[in-house]
Specification:
The protein is α+β, with helices and mostly antiparallel strands. It contains 2 helices and 5 strands. The termini are far apart.
Length: 139
């Protein structure tokens, strides 16, 4: 009997042990993340075989670690917007690309989600957290 491991009670288990850890997107959308503005820069991206200039706003992202209960994972996300004016662009024929949100992973930058509604909700949470911090510091 001494070699049997003790099974923790429900109260002793990490919050995510019953359902599994939240995904990074889930952590952002449920408010279980911390987002802080870092910087902005210009960047040209290829979208549908055409290059578009745009602005990238970088943010520090802190979310619960996916595999280590009680620990945090710190990474960076970038929100890219196409420039307001794109040279040699015919708006009647061409369609300007949408906003993109990338996350820095061990394999480099990759799209956080391709779902437009999820992307808008993530951007709203980014704005909510960063706008709130700006309001707190200006008071």
């Amino acid at each position: 009997m001494d070699s049997i491991e003790h099974t923790p009670s429900k109260e002793q288990m990490p919050q995510w042990a019953e359902t599994g850890p939240l995904s990074t997107v889930g952590a952002i959308l449920t408010g279980k993340s911390q987002i802080k503005y870092l910087s902005s820069h210009m960047e040209t991206r290829e979208v549908q075989f055409r290059e578009y200039p745009g602005n990238v706003h970088s943010y520090e992202l802190i979310v619960p670690h996916l595999t280590k209960a009680g620990e945090k994972w710190i990474t960076e996300i970038g929100v890219w917007f196409p420039a307001a004016h794109v040279p040699e662009f015919n708006e009647r024929v061409d369609r300007k690309p949408e906003m993109q949100i990338d996350i820095l992973t061990g394999q480099g930058h990759m799209a956080l989600t391709k779902n437009p509604e999820t992307m808008r909700n993530i951007y709203e949470e980014i704005r909510r957290q960063t706008d709130q911090k700006e309001a707190d510091t200006s008071s």
